[in-house]
Structure formats: C-alpha cells, structure tokens
Design brief:
By secondary structure, the protein is α/β, with parallel strands linked by helices. The chain has 2 domains: about 260 residues, Alkaline Phosphatase, subunit A (3-Layer(aba) Sandwich); about 80 residues, Sandwich (Immunoglobulin-like). It has an 8-stranded mixed sheet, with helices on both faces. It has a 4-stranded antiparallel sheet with strand order 17-16-19-20, with no helix packed on it. Helix 4 packs parallel to helix 7. The longest helix has 21 residues. The protein is elongated and about 65 Å long.
C-alpha cells in the first residue's frame, strides 16, 4: 500500500503521541516543577541534621530518595549532566570550551515542544549575563547559560533570569524552572554547620510559600544536591514534594542525575537528551490518584474516608507488635504541629481514629510513633 504524504504525517503523529502516552503512563505532569540544586554535601550531613530543619521537614512530607547519587566531581559536570544527559566534554569548573553548545538539553527540549523554561540564579548581575563569576554568583552552577544563543538547541537570554525575577504569583512560573542559590546559600562557601543552616534558611525563605501553594495547585518542588563532599561515594540528598507525591522513605538503589533528567522528560513527553535515554524513570513515588491517597512506602498506612470526617481511621500494619502509648501528630505543610494525641495501642491494633477537629480546608500530614519509632505516616485532605 502506498501512503500519500498527508497520511504518512498523520501516521507518524499518531505513533509519536501513542509512544508518549505509553512511556509516561503513571508519571504525572505537574503544572509547574521547580528544581533547587544545592552544593557539596553528603546525604548523612544533611538528612537528620539539626542544622537543616526545613529540609528534613520536606523529607517527611515528600518522597525522600534515600539512595540518590551525584555522577562525578567537581560540581560543574554534574550540573551539565543533569541538564543535558552528558558532560559535553567538560570535567572542570572553568567556562566550557565551545560554548554556546548546540546539543540536546532539557531547556531547549521544553521550548521546542511548546512548554516554558527558565533558570533563576541568585546574584546573577543581569538577565542574560554570560559572566563567569560576579560576587557570590558562579556560572558553573547555572548550566543553561552554556546553551545561551539563538541557534539549534540553544536557549534565549530571556530564560537566564535573576532570582529577583522569580514570581510571587506562582501561576506565572514556567512549566519547569531551576532555582540556584549563590555560593553562600547553596552550602558551597563557609564551614558546617553554619553553611548548612544558611542553605536551609534559603530554601525556607524562598521556597516554603511555593510549597504551600504547590500542594493545592498540582505543582512540584525537587531539592537535590549536585555532589557530596568527596567522602561518601557521591551519596547526596534528593527530595520530591507535591500533591502527586506519596510521602515516604524510598530505598531503591542507584538513582542519579540522568534518572532525574529522564523523569522530567517523561513528565512532559520530551525526547531524551544524551545518556538519559538509557537511564531509569523514577516511578514508585507517585500517588495513584489525586495525590491524597493510601499506601505509604515505608509503613503501608492509609486514611479512610479521605477527605476526612469525624469517623476517619488511620489503618496500618502493626507487624512488629507495638504496644502501649502511641503518639499521633498532625502537622501542616510548614511542619507546625497542630495536634498531638496519645493512643493506647495493643499488638493486635490495626487502626486508630483521626479526627477533623477544627482544621480548615487543605492538605495535612500525620505521623504515628511508638517509642520514637514511626509506625505510620502519610497525608490527608480536609474539605
């Protein structure tokens, strides 16, 4: 059978659309994704640290990727690999040779597919600046700058923005954006625990209002670190927070920056850039419905009915046979504890009551602990 040009084009379009649907099944498409990249700390230096209370709060209300890794050292190749699936031949922190690049990358793929993209860098001296270092700004942490231009796979200067351009009306955010703190606030300069405290405060000050908004507006925050301190096999923190995320501690091994890139590409049906084609999609952290759902990866707990009523119950597996006084805490998106009740749990107990009380409409989180061990945790909705 001979197909005319129109039929061929239609067939190609149908096949392409079907491939996108098939490959992204189960992967959400957030209205907005904000990716905040921090610097040079290993997982155990941040997760569990009293110097990072807000990051640790995010790790409890989101998906904490316990086994996430940087790909190399030093910093700049990690950023370039996260953004383009390849180090583009760059192994140093110097301005790369041959820029602007014209190779495939996340920003150009989004723009070429009808989506929007921007990078927001703290202390960037001006929109579209190509400067290497200016005060506490360092180009090596803003990879899209290496593709800034008007040619194939290049990114307009208008996408290279200062942090002051980050909108307060989050509806105006691009589909995907990066937030890059300056050298102090990224935990790069200084000494611990002070620089960890600065970075944690930065995320709280600049992004906690976005997190609150995102939970009710189908949007996502990703906080990750480019590399470790050279002493922990490049094991770094990585956290997803949003209404489409099922909170929990995720121990799947071996995720890294190429997997992150592929996951975002799958969210928007984008072509794979570089080595992301052979990477893994992060699939297990997403809720099965509206984001107010049942199974917690760590403790297998659920709330029913949800949205909650005064008849709701938290049901969980008590495989370890916990007994005695058990604490139920309810807290908001910012980690403020709103209520705290003590229940007498017996080894055969499988559920405890969860009351709506005076909670206003919104998303809330619960944690059930016995002798400081978490039995159940998750989120619920009040309408």
């Amino acid at each position: 059978m001979i197909l005319n040009t129109t039929t061929k084009q239609l067939s190609f379009t149908i096949v392409f659309l079907l491939s996108v649907v098939i490959r992204t099944f189960g992967i959400p498409r957030p209205d907005h994704v904000v990716i905040c990249v921090m610097e040079n700390h290993a997982y155990q230096q941040v997760i569990g640290s009293t110097a990072a209370p807000y990051i640790n709060h995010l790790s409890t209300i989101g998906a904490n990727m316990v086994e996430y890794y940087g790909l190399t050292h030093p910093s700049q190749p990690n950023y370039i690999m996260l953004f383009s699936g390849d180090n583009q031949g760059e192994t140093t922190n110097n301005v790369p040779v041959g820029t602007p690049f014209s190779t495939p990358n996340l920003g150009a793929s989004l723009l070429n597919s009808g989506f929007t993209f921007a990078g927001y860098s703290e202390d960037l001296p001006a929109i579209g600046s190509l400067v290497d270092v200016s005060g506490l700004y360092a180009r090596k942490h803003s990879p899209w700058v290496h593709w800034q231009g008007t040619g194939t796979n290049q990114i307009p200067a208008s996408c290279n923005l200062t942090l002051d351009n980050f909108p307060t009306d989050y509806n105006l955010l691009p589909d995907v954006s990066f937030v890059i703190p300056n050298l102090n606030n990224a935990m790069h300069d200084g000494t611990d625990p002070g620089r960890i405290e600065l970075g944690d405060r930065f995320i709280y000050d600049y992004l906690s209002p976005y997190v609150t908004w995102a939970m009710n507006n189908n949007s996502l925050l990703i906080v990750l670190f480019d590399e470790d301190d050279y002493f922990s096999a490049n094991h770094v923190p990585c956290i997803f927070v949003g209404p489409m995320v099922q909170p929990g501690q995720y121990f799947q091994t071996g995720y890294h920056h190429y997997d992150m890139l592929k996951t975002i590409e799958d969210m928007y049906g984008l072509p794979y850039a570089g080595n992301s084609a052979g990477a893994k999609t992060i699939e297990e952290i997403w809720s099965n419905s509206t984001g107010i759902t049942a199974i917690n990866s760590e403790t297998k707990s659920s709330v029913y009915p949800n949205p909650v009523s005064d008849l709701s119950q938290i049901t969980f597996e008590n495989k370890l046979g916990f007994n005695g006084n058990t604490k139920l805490q309810v807290y908001d998106i910012l980690g403020n504890i709103l209520s705290q009740d003590i229940c007498n749990v017996k080894s055969e107990t499988r559920s405890i009551p969860l009351r709506k009380n005076d909670l206003s409409n919104g998303i809330y989180f619960y944690r059930v602990t016995n002798n400081q061990t978490t039995i159940a945790s998750g989120k619920f909705l009040v309408e």
